[in-house]
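Below is a filled-in request sheet from our internal design queue. Each sheet records the structural input a requester submitted and the sequence that came back. We keep these sheets so that new team members can see what a complete request looks like end to end.

REQUESTER: design group, bay 2
PRIORITY: normal
MODE: inverse folding
CHAIN LENGTH: 139
BACKBONE (tokenized):
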């Protein structure tokens, strides 16, 4: 049972981050669509080149997360999966904390609705706890 849940969790993490990376590394219209639908971000039509470079690096980071998840699927060693899930748990928790700490910056940059952002924060905290639990069960 634990193996099946772990596999499903890793597949979902891999799939989401592979798709997210593709959208973010794609044309600006894809970035705007993905940002609006998934994170309620209002990404401007035009922005500075340094902003575009930063966004593209986020796409590469998403693909790195997908690769890490796929590696844990390809080599289903319990300890490797536990370590990978622990890393993801920290990442998900950090995402939630940064949304809180950078509330004003996110609002200024993207006119982010904080109530909508709270849904993302809650989801990431719950996902972090669930992922941490699965990591502990894999040890």
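RETURNED SEQUENCE:
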């Amino acid at each position: 049972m634990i193996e099946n849940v772990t596999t499903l969790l890793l597949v979902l993490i891999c799939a989401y981050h592979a798709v997210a990376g593709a959208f973010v590394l794609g044309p600006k219209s894809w970035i705007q669509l993905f940002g609006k639908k998934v994170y309620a971000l209002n990404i401007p039509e035009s922005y500075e080149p340094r902003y575009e470079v930063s966004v593209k690096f986020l796409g590469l980071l998403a693909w790195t997360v997908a690769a890490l998840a796929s590696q844990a699927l390809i080599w289903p060693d319990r300890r490797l999966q536990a370590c990978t899930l622990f890393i993801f748990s920290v990442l998900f928790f950090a995402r939630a904390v940064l949304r809180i700490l950078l509330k004003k910056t996110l609002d200024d940059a993207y006119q982010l609705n904080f109530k909508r952002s709270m849904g993302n924060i809650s989801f990431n905290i719950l996902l972090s706890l669930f992922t941490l639990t699965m990591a502990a069960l894999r040890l």
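SHEET NOTES:
- The chain is about 85% helix and 0% strand.
- The CA atoms of residues 54 and 79 lie 33 Å apart.
FILED BY: M.R.
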